[in-house]
């Protein structure tokens, strides 16, 4: 049975930021492809919640590539059967640290 995926406010904001960036700087085709990739990835994640690398410092926190240009961080609540998306970060945009 698939786990439920919920979005944190931060994940929603960062995802919207990626979509806005793609709309402003890329074609409609790339935006659609990104939306499709995200949907497929989240379906896979829901079925296999431990598919990415587990954080060494924090219990039930996972991080890894959603695709070659996007990093996702999520928290797994196995007893509640919930995955909380914590953050989604694009490497297309300016880095976190310079």
What Rg, in angstroms, do the CA atoms define? 14 Å
Helix and strand content put the structural class at alpha+beta
Bin the strand percentage: 25-35%
Under CATH, the homologous superfamily reads RelE-like
Continuous helix count:
2
Major sheet summary line: 5 strands, mixed
Q: Could you give the order of the helices and strands?
A: EHHEEEE
> Quick one: CATH class?
Alpha Beta
Distance between the termini: 42 Å
- Give the overall silhouette: globular
Major β-sheet strand ordering: 1-5-4-3-2
Instruction: Give the name of the CATH architecture.
Output: 2-Layer Sandwich
Helix content range of the residues, please?
25-40%
Features:
alpha+beta, YaeB-like fold, 98 residues, five-stranded mixed beta sheet, 2 helices
Could you characterize what this model shows?
The chain has two helices and five strands; from the N terminus they run βααββββ. It is an alpha+beta fold. It has one domain (about 5-90): RelE-like (YaeB-like fold, 2-Layer Sandwich). The chain has a five-stranded mixed sheet. The longest helix has 20 residues, at about 30-45.
In short:
It contains two helices and five strands; from the N terminus they run βααββββ. With 98 residues, the chain is α+β, with helices and mostly antiparallel strands. Strands 1-5-4-3-2 form a five-stranded mixed β-sheet.
């Amino acid at each position: 049975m698939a786990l439920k995926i919920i979005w944190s406010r931060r994940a929603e904001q960062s995802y919207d930021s990626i979509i806005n960036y793609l709309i402003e700087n890329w074609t409609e085709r790339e935006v659609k492809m990104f939306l499709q990739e995200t949907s497929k990835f989240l379906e896979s994640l829901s079925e296999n919640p431990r598919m990415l690398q587990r954080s060494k410092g924090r219990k039930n926190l996972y991080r890894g590539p959603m695709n070659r240009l996007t990093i996702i961080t999520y928290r797994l609540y196995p007893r509640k059967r919930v995955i909380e998306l914590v953050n989604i970060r694009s490497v297309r945009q300016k880095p976190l640290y310079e």
